[in-house]
Amino acid sequence: MKGFRFGSTEGAFYILPGQDGWEATYGNETLGEFATPQQAADDLARGLTCSLSEVDTSTLEIPDKLADWEIVHV
Q1: Which residues, in sequence order, are bridge partners of residue 3?
Q2: Which of 39, 41, 43, 64 is most buried per CB count within 10 Å?
Q3: What tens digit of pLDDT does each residue of 6-61 get?
Q4: CB atoms within 10 A of CB 9
């Protein structure tokens, strides 16, 4: 099974298969569950605030195109 990884200046973000779809994660924090990996990438690019680290993803130039993310195998 595959997932996606983007390495930002603040650390790595992942979009991985979850219980009922896809999960976006940063460190040990789950940022949300999404119907598709593209939806997760769109939301991360537009901006989600990571509550534990207080990082605003809109400031990290996270790409909204999954083709710009690294494919990881899980």
Answers
A1: 72
A2: 41
A3: 999 888 999 999 988 999 998 888 888 999 999 999 989 988 766 666 777 888 88
A4: 7
Q: What token pair was written down for 8?
A: 């930002």
pLDDT on residue 55:
74
What is the total residue count of the chain? 74
CA–CA gap between residue 29 and residue 14 (Å, rounded):
10
Say if CB 35 and CB 22 are below 8 A apart: yes
Bridge partners, 34 (sequence order)? 22
User: Which residues lie closer than 8 Å to 67 by C-beta, 6 or more apart?
Assistant: none
pTM score, whole prediction = 0.88
Cα–Cα distance, 70 to 6 (Å, whole number) = 6
